[in-house]
Amino acid sequence: MKKIIKTFMTGALILIPLALTVWLIVWIGTALGKMGYNLMDSVGLVEQIQPEYRVWAGAIGVAVVLVGVYLTGLLGNVWLFQKFFNLLDHLLSSVPGVKTIYESIRDLMKIFGGQQGSMGRVVLYKPAGEGLKMLGIVTNETPAGRPEGDESVLVYLPLGYMIGGPIVYATPEQIEPVDMPAETALKLAMTAFVGVKDEDEKSEKTPPK
């Protein structure tokens, strides 16, 4: 019986991550397709496609959205548009309610976009009086509201198998630097370091030649 269960779990470990990945890709593709189709329909482009080819309008819509995102990225490197995007960012960050939603999504995109410099540095947080260390990310070196002369920094402590976690004020004595990108630390925390060996962590730090 144990052998059957072990074999079943081996199959599940192979198929479930694969199935969820495929489902997520299909879901994102479908959402982009609907968005692109509606965009094309709003400007009358769908009507220009022959009826027998309209089934491909969603795929064309995906391409339109992706090209639009890429072009926006190119414009983001142009000084004039940088000023415009910064102004828009400032305006959205100034509206109560909208600010919380916008900044949360923006910062989450920065994490998965690999902008590690904006995320902060990885540290080991040592709670006072406790004989343990917790993996954390310094998200703010000069947090607002701390008393004058206080050198505390804000440390985000990701919990296993999830993105959320507490944020604590930590003194310089309570943190120890870790040579690891923030993106890698988040990935390891989300999987609770399951199956990760020291060699795997080193390979994450050292890019292949």
Summarize the structure.
It is built from 7 helices and 5 strands; from the N terminus they run H-H-H-H-H-E-E-E-E-E-H-H. With 209 residues, the protein is α+β, with helices and mostly antiparallel strands.
What is the topology?
Blueprint: H1 2-42, H2 57-75, H3 79-92, H4 98-112, H5 116-119, E1 121-125, E2 134-140, E3 153-156, E4 167-170, E5 175-177, H6 182-190, H7 198-205
Antiparallel strand pairs: 1-2, 1-5, 2-3, 3-4
List keywords for this structure.
5-stranded antiparallel β-sheet; alpha+beta; SH3 type barrels; 2 domains; 209 residues; single chain
Summarize the structure in words:
The protein is α+β, with helices and mostly antiparallel strands. It folds into two domains: 2-111, no CATH class; 117-205, SH3 type barrels. It contains seven helices and five strands. It has helices at residues 2-42, 57-75, 79-92, 98-112, 116-119, 182-190, 198-205; strands at residues 121-125, 134-140, 153-156, 167-170, 175-177. Strands 4-3-2-1-5 form a five-stranded antiparallel beta sheet. Strand 1 (121-125) and strand 2 (134-140) form a beta hairpin. Helix 1 (2-42) crosses helix 2 (57-75). The radius of gyration is 23 Å and the shape is flat. The termini are far apart.
